[in-house]
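> forwarded from #structure-qc
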């Protein structure tokens, strides 16, 4: 018995003739040694080159040489023991075919048999079964330029530089790599489209990634996405993603209040989902700057508006803000169109015997939400004048959650309870802009 792999070891076996060509299909078929068929006078096929010289099953290759059968059926092409099942074209001097699914990974002998017999062999490198690298998932699946994306899959090269990753054709630099995971930043200039990993042996499947707009934190200025939240078009659903720094954990009841206020005012027939997500070690900033907050968001945020789902990103931070001065501390900050933060330590330090931390916390959450919903006069127009212009995008009414004191340590000076409701003037603004 002589397998195809053995018979293709060059000129030593050149005289070997296949008994019946059609019997040569499949792996390990035997050559008909011992004169199973009479040698013909036709010239044996002779291979001169193959291009490319490597690739996973499914790769289209062109073999050049002489003595091929003009009809595709007259040529049997072997990658090791596996016979090509798809031959696109053939002539006396060229065959175009596909590396068969059954080809064994590694270097194999490529040969062609015709009725006249078997050719010489060329080396061909078959990449790992399954077509080289495969992407299983991306996380996140959307984000602005600079977002760190984790690519999970198989067949990656542990050497970062050996993997080429493109976002809709724009290459990026691989940060870390293992056989099953790559981390990459969304490259400058990238546009929405598929992410593909390419190794020397072939390219992966493509998985869709949405590049969101840059500018500020990548999500526009506070209030700029108000209509995305208020209206049911284009987003029927809303996801609240909450990340926190260790030691600044959210109060569950306060988050429930935030979600309830959203459900009251935002047209989201598909629902409002609360995702309490990562808890991250503190980077140790004593007074967070906006750019530090934005960088922290880019590092840890997993969800951006996409498909039918709008996203509100809520960040719980420790220590204080660079906007603090003396005893006056900032409790929260809406710093982009789709995100705000809360300074948990400052919220706690603002609490008094009569006003608890959780009561302040829920008010601050609703207040910052209000800024993201375009209040006051910060993305949605006022239906009646109610802005406290001396204090920015805030409500003149001390009974409204949008009063400026709610997001400062002055909150404890509010008489009675801390409001966590929008007043009638704010509600009218939200309704006029598509809200409820
Ligand atoms: Zn405010």
């Amino acid at each position: 018995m002589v397998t195809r792999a053995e018979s293709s070891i060059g000129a030593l076996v050149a005289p070997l003739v296949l008994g019946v060509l059609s019997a040569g299909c499949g792996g390990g078929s035997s050559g008909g040694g011992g004169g199973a068929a009479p040698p013909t006078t036709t010239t044996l096929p002779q291979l001169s080159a193959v291009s490319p010289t490597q690739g996973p099953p499914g790769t289209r290759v062109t073999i050049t040489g002489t003595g091929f059968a003009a009809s595709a059926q007259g040529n049997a092409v072997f990658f090791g023991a596996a016979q090509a099942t798809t031959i696109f074209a053939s002539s006396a001097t060229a065959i175009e075919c596909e590396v068969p699914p059954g080809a064994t990974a590694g270097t194999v002998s490529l040969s062609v048999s015709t009725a006249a017999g078997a050719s010489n062999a060329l080396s061909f490198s078959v990449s790992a079964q399954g077509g080289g690298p495969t992407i299983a998932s991306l996380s996140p699946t959307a984000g602005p330029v600079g977002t760190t994306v984790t690519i999970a899959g198989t067949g990656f090269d542990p050497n970062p530089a050996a993997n080429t990753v493109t976002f809709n054709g724009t290459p990026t630099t691989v940060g870390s790599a293992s056989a099953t995971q790559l981390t990459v930043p969304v490259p400058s200039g990238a546009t929405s489209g598929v992410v593909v990993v390419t190794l020397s042996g072939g390219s992966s499947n493509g998985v869709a990634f949405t590049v969101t707009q840059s500018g500020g934190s990548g999500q526009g200025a506070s209030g700029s996405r108000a209509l995305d939240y208020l209206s049911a078009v284009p987003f029927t659903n809303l996801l609240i993603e909450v990340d926190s720094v260790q030691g600044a954990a959210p109060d569950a009841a306060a988050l429930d209040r935030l979600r309830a206020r959203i459900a009251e005012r935002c047209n989201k027939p598909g629902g409002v989902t609360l995702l309490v997500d990562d808890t991250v070690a503190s980077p140790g900033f004593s007074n967070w700057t906006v750019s530090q907050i934005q960088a922290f968001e880019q590092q840890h945020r997993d969800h951006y508006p996409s498909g039918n789902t709008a996203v509100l990103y809520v960040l719980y931070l420790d220590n204080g803000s660079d906007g603090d001065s003396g005893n006056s501390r900032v409790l929260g900050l809406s710093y982009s169109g789709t995100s705000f933060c809360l300074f948990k330590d400052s919220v706690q330090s603002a609490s008094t015997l009569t006003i608890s931390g959780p009561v302040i916390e829920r008010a601050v959450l609703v207040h910052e939400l209000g800024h993201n919903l375009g209040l006051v006069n910060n993305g949605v127009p006022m239906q009646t004048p109610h802005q406290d212009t001396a204090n920015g995008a805030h409500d003149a009414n001390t009974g409204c959650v949008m009063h400026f004191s709610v997001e400062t340590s002055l909150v404890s000076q509010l008489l009675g309870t801390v409001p966590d409701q929008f007043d009638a003037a704010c509600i009218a603004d939200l309704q006029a802009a598509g809200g409820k």
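QC bot note: The longest helix spans residues 357-372. The CA atoms of residues 157 and 431 lie 54 Å apart.
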